[in-house]
Design brief:
It is a single chain. By secondary structure, this protein is of the alpha/beta class. The protein contains eight helices and seven strands; from the N terminus they run βααβαβαβαβββααα. It has a seven-stranded mixed beta sheet. The N and C termini lie far apart (52 Å).
Length: 210
């Protein structure tokens, strides 16, 4: 998993509340078993006017030229609600987003973001409104996110502090997913397995001698 320390990223806005995981990544694209390749289907029903995904919808805000290459997404409350599919953060990360800012998230989606190297930030509705206004008025605007200091810096001169669980923060800073956390104890696991095999062989030998 990629570590997350600081990000100075082009910022896109999506002025919708209650965006569910089926809107983030529709169910017909969930047949892959690997985590990659989902970004092309992100917000499919909004981004495209055809089922094949070949005709961009010019009215969808993320299709605007000013937001191409965005790595920060600012949106409204209850983002990621609906089903618990982990494909939603996979699609967002594969598309290029490393951080999302919203007043609130669905719990499972929020947890899945951390497991996939993305930082979901919770700010108040008023703070999100201020960021929306700044981004709308300034094409190409970026937000600087410092995970260590837990601060979002805006070009309007305002800083926004955010809370994050200390364990999740440490995992993001070090780029540790569940597998990475397990591998930290690889030497202990290897030692335990060797001891276990040795004891098992000894037990078998004793049984044969009875």
């Amino acid at each position: 998993m990629k570590s997350f320390t600081t990000l100075n990223g082009l910022t896109a806005i999506l002025d919708k509340a209650n965006i569910d995981t089926d809107q983030i990544i529709p169910k017909q694209f969930l047949r892959k078993i690997e985590r990659s390749g989902f970004g092309v289907h992100l917000f499919h029903d909004w981004r495209f006017t055809d089922d094949a995904g070949t005709k961009l919808n010019p009215d969808f805000i993320l299709n605007q030229e000013r937001y191409k290459g965005a790595s920060v997404l600012v949106t409204r409350e209850n983002f990621g609600c609906g089903s618990s599919r982990e494909h939603a953060p996979w699609a967002l990360e594969d598309y290029g987003f490393r951080s999302i800012i919203s007043p609130s998230y669905a719990d499972i989606f929020y947890n899945n973001c951390f497991k996939n190297g993305m930082l979901p930030i919770v700010l108040s509705p008023k703070e999100v409104d201020e960021i929306f206004e700044y981004i709308e008025k300034n094409p190409g605007a970026k937000l600087e996110i410092d995970l260590e200091k837990q601060i979002v810096k805006s070009g309007n001169g305002k800083n926004y502090s955010f809370e994050v669980d200390s364990f999740r923060k440490e995992c993001l800073l070090k780029g540790l997913d569940d597998i990475g956390l397990t591998l930290i104890h690889e030497s202990k696991i290897t030692s335990f397995e060797k001891k276990r095999r040795s004891e098992f062989r000894k037990c078998l030998k004793e049984q044969k001698n009875v």
